[in-house]
Amino acid sequence: MQIHSAQFEISAPDLDSCPESDLPEFAFIGRSNVGKSSLINTLTNKHNLAMVSAKPGKTRLINFFRINQKWDLVDLPGYGYAKASGQTRNKFNVMVSDYLVKRDNLSCVFVLIDCRHEAQKLDLEFTAWLIEYQIPFVLVFTKTDKVKPTIVQKHIDYFKKAMSEFCDGLPRIYTCSAKTGTGRKEILQFIDQAVVN
Ligand code: GTP
Ligand code: MG
């Protein structure tokens, strides 16, 4: 799929402030610093569209980007940001879970996982939560430029094995690097098919 246009639309602090829309939406979530905003920039080929930072906890609101005037990408705050206070963390959790559970035009959630690490409890718990709430999702292993392909594959296999303990089928899995553009084409192809259907 070609990206003809990509524009920032709005940042929302909660579900009620999200724009009304019938267009399909694709949301990006994962631990703080996993590369959500970077992947949005890579997919759209606009390197300053979503705000990126080496410091975790950069994205704090629900950010909407309109693509090709046909669908939206949604950049969400990361979970598991250790430095956030309990109160702030709770506010984020309510904001994000409300959005994920109640947003009618949400087509699919991209759950980003850092390919450099073995399956982490928080990521597994989050995928189990999505399954419980029947929210459609795919997994994207990020930052593949940082380690050897064999390590990436080992960590994907661990994650699949851990997931098979609590779910029957496995979700679709992608790998990506915001640095080299690996995975961009495949992810856009998936979105393209989802938008058409
Ligand atoms: P929060 O908004 O804080 O939750 O973070 P995020 O998940 O949006 O991560 P962000 O895109 O801001 O990236 C965090 C850091 O990782 C930045 O320094 C990025 O440059 C770096 N980064 C993201 N993706 C990649 C990648 O694929 N490869 C490499 N080498 N670095 C990456
Ligand atoms: Mg971000």
From TrEMBL:
Residues 22-197 form the EngB-type G domain. GO terms for biological process: division septum assembly. InterPro entries: G_ENGB_dom, GTP-bd, GTP-bd_ribosome_bio_YsxC, P-loop_NTPase. The keyword 4Fe-4S does not apply. PANTHER family: ENGB-TYPE G DOMAIN-CONTAINING PROTEIN, MSS1/TRME-RELATED GTP-BINDING PROTEIN. NCBIfam families: GTPase_YsxC. This is Probable GTP-binding protein EngB. It comes from Oceaniferula marina.
